[in-house]
Design goal:
278 residues; alpha/beta; Lysozyme-like; six-stranded mixed sheet; two-stranded antiparallel sheet
Length: 278
């Protein structure tokens, strides 16, 4: 039998070699597909984050280590020590005695109406307890929410969210200037007629807390204990309403009033500027 010509033998050999390569490639592809299918049947294992180095501070904020602190929106550092005390905590630091008298309550003053803290001098050198009794016996139903004794003790005779008649009539136009319209919440029991055409506005009581300071103008300094008690009382009022009420004295509401006294002027300026006496 004759052998195939050389060109034909070369072509047949090449075809055999190509066929072998194709079979190997098909085998590789089949194996790869099978591996992918098997891998898809098993759920991937997710690596859990390591929380072992995280700590939670008293404000409920996680930090990386105990030595790290949390920066506030303005770049300040917050911590448990810097957390603002609550109204209850601030009140607990004050020596307050409650002595509520029904005749001193002249209507509701919800938190949304609170705008001012009005400071007064009692103009009598008596204890807060005796002043409350004298107010009641007068029958004119006038009182402030708080009276601060010289030793720093405090008597509260009207609830925070009730209207007290402490500011009385103010200068004509002051209702508008101070943003305290007369809206009918004040029952005006015991109120007399306006004393003059220049003193006619009566809105302040419905938007304020009154603080009487036991002091007689021109008769000595305000004791440090009394001033510190006023500081604490203002801080408590701010926390109670969760806002800073504007601080004024009685003569700012009604021109010609004697309170607060000239010797209180520096303290008043400090209270209005940064809410403490010094």
């Amino acid at each position: 039998m004759k052998s195939a010509p050389a060109p034909l033998r070369w072509a047949l050999g090449r075809a055999v070699r190509l066929k072998g390569k194709c079979m190997r490639l098909i085998g590789i592809l089949v194996a790869a597909a099978l591996a992918c299918t098997l891998a898809g049947c098993a759920a991937p294992q997710q690596q859990q984050p390591d929380h072992s180095s995280l700590k939670v501070n008293d404000a409920g904020v996680s930090s990386g280590t105990g030595s790290q602190s949390v920066e506030g929106a303005e770049g300040g550092v917050s911590s448990a020590e810097e957390a603002k005390p609550t109204a209850s905590e601030l009140r607990a630091k004050l020596d307050i005695t409650e002595d509520y008298r029904p005749d001193f309550n002249h209507g509701k003053k919800g938190a949304s109406y609170q705008k001012y803290i009005v400071l007064h001098d009692t103009e009598v050198d008596s204890s807060a307890a005796s002043i409350v009794n004298s107010w009641e016996s007068s029958g004119n139903k006038v009182a402030s929410q708080f009276i601060v004794n010289k030793d720093g003790s405090i008597v509260q005779c009207v609830p925070m969210d009730a209207i007290a008649h402490h500011a009385g009539y103010g200068d004509a136009g002051h209702n508008s200037e101070y943003g305290v319209p007369e809206d009918g919440r004040d029952d005006k029991r015991g109120t007399t007629k306006a004393p003059s055409k220049s003193i006619t506005d009566y809105g302040m009581n419905s938007y304020s807390i009154g603080i009487e300071i036991v002091h007689v103008g021109g008769q000595g300094a305000y004791p440090e204990a009394q001033l510190e008690a006023i500081d604490g009382l203002i801080a408590y009022i701010d926390a109670y309403y969760d806002s800073e009420s504007t601080i004024i004295d009685h003569k700012m509401w009604r021109s010609g009033n004697s309170d607060t006294s000239a010797e209180f002027a520096t303290y008043l300026a400090n209270y209005r500027d940064h809410r403490t006496h010094n």
